Amino acid sequence: MTRIAIIAGSTRTHRRGKAVADWTFTTARRVAPEGVDVELVDLAGFDLPVLDEPASGAWGIYAHEHTRRWSEAIAAVDGYVLVTPEYNHGVPGPLKNAIDYLYYEWNHKAVGFVGYGVNGGVRAVEQLRQIAAELKLADVAAQVALNTFTDFDYTGVDITEPTVTGVFTPDDRHAGDLAKLLDEVTVWSRALAPVRAQTPESDER
């Protein structure tokens, strides 16, 4: 069984990210390749402070329980789908912070991206691709780009209210984009399994 985690990468109180991640999870369960187990990991549930470990994640020595809990969730799966908003032309701080807590847990796995924002979150995704390379993550070409104007319905709501998120109503084509993404993440996650098996954490550190 190949395990893929859908990671909700936004922690803001009034966020669109939970609706997007929930859709990604439920759709993924329907369109994922045979033999894939999909699970939802919500970053907001880990309450990670600004990185407070005394040593770099590359050492794999964790002083805090919140880090160990996060490490266990990330280490347990074979690949990832990161659901990310775009904040100020880039990756949201909480997601980058969470990524930086760990190192070996990410290695030799595959990752795909579901971005959302005014421009589909594409600039945040491009930054995440650069980060993925440093973490020895194989990022796949297929991605899902969701627009906060066309993929959300604001009918009957006051759009001047600062906490309004609208109702997530993604275009049908995005399910096909997600299916392609999951196919690629699955292929690469399985292809890298022998590499993971040959480089156990105890030998890497």
From TrEMBL:
<protein>
    <submittedName>
        <fullName>NADPH-dependent FMN reductase</fullName>
    </submittedName>
</protein>
<dbReference type="InterPro" id="IPR050712">
    <property type="entry name" value="NAD(P)H-dep_reductase"/>
</dbReference>
<dbReference type="GO" id="GO:0005829">
    <property type="term" value="C:cytosol"/>
</dbReference>
<dbReference type="GO" id="GO:0016491">
    <property type="term" value="F:oxidoreductase activity"/>
</dbReference>
<feature type="domain" description="NADPH-dependent FMN reductase-like">
    <location>
        <begin position="2"/>
        <end position="150"/>
    </location>
</feature>
<dbReference type="GO" id="GO:0010181">
    <property type="term" value="F:FMN binding"/>
</dbReference>
<dbReference type="Pfam" id="PF03358">
    <property type="entry name" value="FMN_red"/>
</dbReference>
<dbReference type="InterPro" id="IPR029039">
    <property type="entry name" value="Flavoprotein-like_sf"/>
</dbReference>
<dbReference type="InterPro" id="IPR005025">
    <property type="entry name" value="FMN_Rdtase-like_dom"/>
</dbReference>
